[in-house]
Q: What sequence folds into this?
């Protein structure tokens, strides 16, 4: 996790600022082609800081402030990457793992507490004693709180999180190590690239603009957005997919987080654009997801969708995926989006078509049959745009957003 990610994320429980503790980090100098020029791995007592402007003065914030240190210039220059650490919220005492470069910012009811508690124990000799005991004690209340959270999509989400346990094909994740390229399926590769090149202009991004890549999966779209000159944040609920992407990207590390789209831990109005590339059809509570999109977008910021149509869930392949893995497969159309956006002050959804037509067909009537037979991409492209002057900041417990 690069230091600058703290500019965009917050505690998924209360919305409070997070302070990082780094147990293991790597400092790298890159050239313009992402080749490593030099590197150094640090293994030492956990570094704490910098301290945000805490809204509350609690016993935990006092401990954090006492032991905090300022980041060094390398961290400020984005050349430091945390391999292993913690993110701590001084407002509500929640803490979150940073593992294999990626912070896990899942809400309490989706966390693997057995795994996380074991992870925390590895910091027992590297954190101040009072801080470690405080985190241990607060963990018990978080575990009891998870049973009070109502989530109608819980089964779908757990299926996504634990998909590696359901896979019986040894090569299931294989394509992720070369994604989007797959020499055994060039047609599929071409379709992925055509979709990406078709939706990219609708994001209307300028150099260094910040874009959220929703359901980034193997994160090749996040990687390409970074290489194009933007500042992407890839988010996915499944650890396995992102780990595969990290291994593929090697030295190229865009911002990546493990999080629930319906409980997005992203700060208000900090994004220029949002991309939903073949991902929104896995989301159950779409009204809640779009409420978060509206909250985190800047004025006039677009949400761009590249998604299957409304009959997607009836396709045989979709039925088999839902039955075997328990993952939600539900397409959308423009009317669906209009319904999901009610009360959010998005401008009316637009559907865009990228067609391959000959010169003599230019005056043809754009019927549904003509569009389907001449479409350049095998997906539907929709654009939502946040209207100006309609900020709706969300305060308090983020699990209350509906």
A:
């Amino acid at each position: 996790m690069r230091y600058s990610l703290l500019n965009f994320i917050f505690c998924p429980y209360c919305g409070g600022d997070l302070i990082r503790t780094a147990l293991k980090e790597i400092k790298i100098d890159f050239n313009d082609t992402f080749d490593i020029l030099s590197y150094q791995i640090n293994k030492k007592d956990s570094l704490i800081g910098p301290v945000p402007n805490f809204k509350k003065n609690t016993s935990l914030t006092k401990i954090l402030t006492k032991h905090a240190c300022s980041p060094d210039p390398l961290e400020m220059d984005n050349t430091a990457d945390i391999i292993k650490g913690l993110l701590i919220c001084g407002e509500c005492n929640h803490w979150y793992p940073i593992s294999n470069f990626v912070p896990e910012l899942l809400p309490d009811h989706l966390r693997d507490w057995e795994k996380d508690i074991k992870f925390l124990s590895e910091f027992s000799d590297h954190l101040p004693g009072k801080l470690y005991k405080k985190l241990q004690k607060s963990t018990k209340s978080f575990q009891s709180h998870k049973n009070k959270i109502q989530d109608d999509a819980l089964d779908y989400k757990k299926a996504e999180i634990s998909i590696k346990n359901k896979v019986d094909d040894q090569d299931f994740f294989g394509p992720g190590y070369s994604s989007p390229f797959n020499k055994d399926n060039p047609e599929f590769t071409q379709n992925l690239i055509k979709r990406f090149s078709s939706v990219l202009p609708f994001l209307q991004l300028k150099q260094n603009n910040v874009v959220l890549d929703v359901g980034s999966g193997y994160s090749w779209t996040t990687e390409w957005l970074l290489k194009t000159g933007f500042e992407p944040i890839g988010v996915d609920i499944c650890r396995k997919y992102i780990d595969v992407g990290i291994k593929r990207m090697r030295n190229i590390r865009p911002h990546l987080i493990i999080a629930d789209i319906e409980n997005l831990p992203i700060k208000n109005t900090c994004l220029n654009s949002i991309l939903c590339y073949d991902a929104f059809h896995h989301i159950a509570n779409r009204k809640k997801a779009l409420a978060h999109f509206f909250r985190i977008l800047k004025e006039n910021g677009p949400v761009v969708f590249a998604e299957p149509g409304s009959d997607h869930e009836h396709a045989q392949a979709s039925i088999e995926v839902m039955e075997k893995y328990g993952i939600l497969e539900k397409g959308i159309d423009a009317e669906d989006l209009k319904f999901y956006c009610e009360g959010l002050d998005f401008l009316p959804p637009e559907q865009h078509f990228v067609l391959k037509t000959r010169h003599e067909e230019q005056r043809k009537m754009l019927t549904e049959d003509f569009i389907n037979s001449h479409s350049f991409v095998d997906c539907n492209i929709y654009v939502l745009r946040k209207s100006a002057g309609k900020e709706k900041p969300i305060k308090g417990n983020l699990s209350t957003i509906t």
Observations:
- The chain has twelve helices and twelve strands.
- The CA atoms of residues 97 and 116 lie 7 Å apart.
- The chain has two domains: 3-148, 165-400.
